[in-house]
């Protein structure tokens, strides 16, 4: 079969539409690019459509196996010309394959032991990096509070490196939804550069939520209202702030450190 | 005086040349953009030339004060047209002011208590973010091992948010130079995803260096050779890796946490 060469092809139009939030909402799907991410998507979700470069899978066992797995899972798998691949891809150098993956369905409510709230995080790289760290420390729920970047945007998906398939993600259009989603947590910890209480002086063995706020504007009124504890990240004199993804990640890893240490102390007894 | 409108103007040519490594090496200077970063540069170094948008400083006290401070410090301060500003700027949306700042002179050797080695870090954002965290935790020396991105590239400078003026930076063209610069440290800790020893089980009160390796290729042969301790960052099952800047930052903050805690235990005695 000839590679698809028209940008009017319905599969091509679908994938292209997923580059913006309206298209993602209409088609209830998001764009996943590159071998590794599409592999993760094929294991965790059911990609609907996958478009690949003409020679993709022809001489590479890993690529060929991925195309078979996608087809077995019921995806439409089609070769497209390099020009069409560039048209649907969000990256400057397309990585050979892109797929349309359904947005996750709501899951039955389970009380998270650790949750993260993105409070107006605007930078896609920071949002994706926070999501990636959240998955690594075992955060069960990530809440996108109002004014936060759409976490299904292609740049966020790339930075998160597969974490979209490991953490339950909820978008909250109002802070009341955030409060409702955190009903079971014992403490809501707000990271705030100006606070002197250190993040490691919090007892992270409790059911907790961590709020990470906007890089430039700091915590929103909604975040301040629901926070029960404020913590700061100590910095050397003269240093004003950290990258938001770094600050959030440092705190999440302290939570993991405390939890693993507590578990091991328990076992030793 | 009319704003400079020609890209052939020598000041304009100087700043433009600083966008690439060869120009920075020839002129022994680097490019700093935006009000906040140029303010930091004007406090910590002696910018040679500052070019600003026509209306910059006209109606804003902070901007006007910055122009005065630059002139007082001996910098050539000139208005340029928006087109010329875009020409010298590395950003899509120029931030009103750019300056040529001299590369720091070598400082008398002082034994660092905490050093960081960038081992082939290729992503400018990651290198800058690591440098920013290094400054925040009080790292005294940052070493750029072979294959590492030029930390004076504009994207690194932006991500580091002023940290270039807070940490001693050395570029090592060979691993022997790295070894020499770490002669006084007691342990060289290599972060390696595959190692089970946890980074918090290291005694960070010792004089230490942390090696953070390339995002995709892992530790280089040179890094493995000089490492005395290998540590991993624990991750949830199924998660393969963290962002390199996050992994490095998380470990650096554990070093700070241990050092502050030890200091306070000492004081309490």
Give an overview in words.
The structure is a homodimer of 269-residue chains. The longest helix of chain A is centred in the last third of the chain and has 25 residues, at 244-268. Chain A has two domains: 10-102, 60s Ribosomal Protein L30, Chain: A; 114-268, Alpha/beta knot. The first copy, chain A, has ten helices and ten strands. In chain A, the strands form two sheets. Chain A has a six-stranded parallel sheet. The first copy, chain A, has a four-stranded mixed sheet with strand order 1-4-2-3, sandwiched between helices. The first copy, chain A, is elongated, with a radius of gyration of 21 Å. In chain A, helix 6 (124-137) runs parallel beside helix 7 (154-160) and helix 6 (124-137) runs parallel beside helix 10 (244-268). Chain A has 269 residues and is of the alpha/beta class. The mean pLDDT of chain A is 94. Chain A binds chain B through residues 125, 129, 132-133, 135-138, 159, 161-163, 166, 198, 200, 233-236, 238-243, 245-246, 249-250, 253-254, 256-257, 260-261, and chain B through 125, 129, 132-133, 135-138, 159, 161-163, 166, 198, 200, 233-236, 238-243, 245-246, 249-250, 253-254, 256-257, 260-261.
């Amino acid at each position: 079969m000839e590679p698809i060469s028209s940008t009017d092809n319905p599969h091509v139009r679908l994938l292209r539409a997923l580059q913006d939030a309206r298209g993602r909402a209409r088609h209830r799907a998001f764009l996943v690019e590159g071998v590794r991410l599409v592999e993760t998507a094929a294991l965790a979700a059911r990609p609907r459509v996958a478009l690949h470069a003409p020679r993709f899978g022809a001489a590479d066992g890993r690529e060929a196996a991925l195309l078979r797995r996608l087809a077995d899972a019921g995806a439409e798998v089609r070769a497209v010309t390099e020009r069409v691949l560039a048209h649907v891809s969000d990256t400057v150098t397309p990585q050979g394959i892109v797929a349309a993956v359904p947005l996750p369905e709501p899951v039955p409510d389970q009380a998270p032991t650790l949750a993260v709230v993105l409070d107006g995080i605007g930078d896609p790289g920071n949002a994706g990096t926070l999501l990636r760290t959240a998955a690594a420390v075992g955060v069960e729920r990530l809440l996108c509070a109002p004014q936060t970047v759409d976490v299904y945007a292609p740049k966020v998906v790339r930075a998160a490196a597969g974490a979209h398939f490991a953490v339950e993600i909820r978008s909250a259009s109002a802070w009341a939804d955030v409060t409702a989603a955190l009903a079971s947590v014992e403490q809501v910890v707000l990271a705030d550069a100006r606070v002197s209480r250190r993040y490691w002086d919090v007892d992270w063995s409790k059911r907790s939520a961590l709020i990470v706020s906007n890089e430039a504007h700091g915590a929103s009124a909604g975040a301040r209202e629901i926070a029960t504890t404020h913590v700061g990240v100590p910095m050397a004199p003269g240093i004003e702030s950290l990258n938001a993804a770094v600050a959030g990640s440092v705190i999440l890893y302290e939570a993991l450190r405390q939890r693993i240490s507590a578990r091991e102390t328990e076992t030793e007894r």
